[in-house]
Amino acid sequence: MKLEKQTIVRTALDLLDRAGLEGLTMRKLADALGVQAPALYWHFPNKQALLDDMAEALLDNVPAQMVDRGDAAETLESLAIALRQAFLSRRDGARVYAGTFIARPNAMLVGEVASAALLRAGLDGQSAFRGLTSLLYFVLGFVIEEQALAEQSRPEAGQHPMAEKLMPPDLDRYPHVAAIWGQLLEPDQDARFRFGVDLIVRPLIEKHGGHCR
């Protein structure tokens, strides 16, 4: 049976869910496909090339989830939400995407819609590019931390699974930190995410576009 590139990528994503990024090796992927490792190198010269295709596959549903009603802020907010969902859909999804620089159809379509919204709002090319990359880096960083916390969490009765690890014994020495420390374990990750997105999107458009429409 001929080994298709899309089959390799789908199997790699499934292996990622089971083994994580560290456990995703070309040898293990070949075993999962029932082939010898050299067969993979016909399609992917190295692991980074495979990760690039996996990153593009993570974006499969993002363009359809973006909202472009002529309002730049809504467009970017919908982009951020869709990207977060895409990265969370696979174990270590954000880590897979981070460090890939792909000019593939999904990535380009997402960039086209978001760029058009910002340019219509009056941003110049430099501000639009810097704004989009800042938003992407925020989403990646947020999800990397979100997924790392999930990996390390172990349920404990009546408390957050990371409460003990994240509670310094001498917190009273830092009263101002102590005043906000409880927010570190805030369970509403969606609210934290929206707060961060809003800090980037609204000021970006208001400051560099002059208006939000």
TrEMBL record:
The keyword Transferase does not apply. SUPFAM superfamilies: Homeodomain-like, Tetracyclin repressor-like, C-terminal domain. One of its GO terms (biological process) is negative regulation of DNA-templated transcription. Pfam families: TetR_C_1 (PF02909), TetR_N (PF00440). Keywords: DNA-binding, Repressor, Transcription, Transcription regulation. TetR is the repressor of the tetracycline resistance element; its N-terminal region forms a helix-turn-helix structure and binds DNA. Binding of tetracycline to TetR reduces the repressor affinity for the tetracycline resistance gene (tetA) promoter operator sites. This is TetR family transcriptional regulator. Residues 25-44 bind DNA. Transmembrane segments: none annotated. Residues 2-62 form the HTH tetR-type domain. GO terms for molecular function: DNA-binding transcription factor activity; transcription cis-regulatory region binding. It comes from the Bacteria. The lineage of its organism: Bacteria, Pseudomonadati, Pseudomonadota, Alphaproteobacteria, Hyphomicrobiales.
